[in-house]
């Protein structure tokens, strides 16, 4: 599939006399396809669509990915004009690398919000599964919500089959399906450990959507904190790959939702 990663952002002009907008598009291999600038007066969907159409020639991409919230609106209009689906996702590694070279990637993330109490389950725990068993374990199960994109398959990432992949199981009880549906709508990206600092509690923060952040749980218990540190260490060995599993209870008979996740890069 031909996928482009596109950003449209404003930056000061060299002489600071006028705001300049820059359009940058690359493929998933990092090859720059389009790099054009325009003044504020021309910064609209029609101009962006024309530049991308010219760069594409007779072969438009099958999909355009965008990670910056401020440009997702205009690129949605561009997608409608070009008849190309737009995907809002943080997983635009090639584009972010190119922007980092230019010093042009700055995203403001809001502080994490509390997860509504009505969504949280009965309990939760840290778990691990060998990379070689991760996909097979859930592939043939009847799971209502299953998110296992191919680019997060351990084999695709080149992770050794014996590598332990860390994860979180949430036992949702009666809220299991409601929680799983909420997670799916929130578009989970990663579950990060926030260590205890001074007198502040540690916890787990869900990174979701383009910039959303949610506090899943906080804890002060020393044993839980040690388990969280182990979870964090395993993330480093697994290229940030991890998972979230929602089940009604700990019987292991029924699964409600499963997501492969990876730290935002």
From TrEMBL:
All residue ranges annotated as the RNA-binding protein Tab2-like N-terminal domain in the record: 3-102
GO molecular function list: RNA binding
Ranges where the RNA-binding protein Tab2/Atab2 C-terminal domain occurs: 105-262
InterPro entries: Tab2-like, Tab2-like_C, Tab2-like_N
Superkingdom of the source species: Bacteria
Transmembrane segments annotated in the record for this chain: none
PANTHER family: PROTEIN TAB2 HOMOLOG, CHLOROPLASTIC, PTHR34556
Protein name, entry field: Tab2/Atab2 family RNA-binding protein
């Amino acid at each position: 599939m031909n996928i482009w990663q596109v950003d449209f952002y404003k930056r000061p002009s060299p002489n600071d006399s006028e705001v300049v907008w820059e359009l940058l598009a690359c493929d998933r291999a990092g090859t720059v396809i389009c790099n054009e600038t325009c003044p504020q007066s021309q910064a609209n969907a029609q101009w962006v669509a024309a530049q991308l159409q010219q760069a594409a020639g007779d072969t438009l991409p099958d999909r355009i990915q965008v990670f910056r919230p401020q440009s997702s609106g205009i690129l949605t209009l561009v997608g409608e004009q070009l008849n190309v689906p737009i995907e809002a996702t943080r997983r635009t590694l090639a584009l972010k690398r190119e922007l980092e070279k230019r010093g042009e990637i700055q995203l403001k993330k809001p502080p994490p919000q509390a997860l509504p109490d009505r969504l949280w389950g009965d309990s939760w725990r840290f778990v691990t599964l060998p990379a070689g068993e991760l996909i097979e374990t859930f592939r043939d199960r009847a799971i209502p919500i299953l998110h296992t994109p191919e680019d997060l398959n351990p084999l695709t990432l080149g992770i050794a089959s014996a590598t332990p992949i860390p994860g979180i199981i949430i036992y949702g009880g009666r809220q299991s399906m409601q929680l799983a549906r909420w997670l799916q709508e929130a578009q989970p990206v990663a579950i990060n450990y926030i260590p205890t600092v001074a007198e502040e509690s540690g916890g787990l923060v869900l990174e979701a959507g383009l910039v959303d952040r949610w506090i899943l749980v906080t804890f002060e218990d020393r044993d839980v904190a040690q388990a969280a540190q182990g979870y964090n260490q395993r993330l480093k060995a697994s290229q940030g790959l991890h998972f979230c599993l929602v089940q009604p209870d700990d019987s292991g008979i029924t699964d409600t939702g499963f997501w492969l996740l990876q730290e935002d890069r």
